[in-house]
Amino acid sequence: MANTDSGTFLTVAEVADLMRVSKMTVYRLVHSGELPAVRVGRSFRVHEHAVEEYLGSSVYNAGQAG
Predict the structure, then answer these.
(1) Number of separate domains in the chain
(2) Each residue's pLDDT tens digit, 4-60
(3) Is 38 in a helix, a strand, or coil?
(4) C-beta contacts of 16-22 below 8 A and 24+ residues apart
(5) Where in the sequence is the domain holding 45, given as residue range(s)?
């Protein structure tokens, strides 16, 4: 089966560095389903596009009344 999806899978540590959060925060996001991940053995891998989508959807607009 050919891999037609471009991009890279990142480790939890790489995602944490990219997002500037702790690894525990990334694990919480994965376990809650907010950040999709695949299990490889005993560890998780997160597709870089999933990280970009999560960050894009998490933008906070301070000027917006709610």
Answers:
(1) 1
(2) 567 899 999 999 999 999 999 999 999 999 999 999 999 999 999 999 999 999 877
(3) strand
(4) 18/51, 19/51, 19/55
(5) 9-59
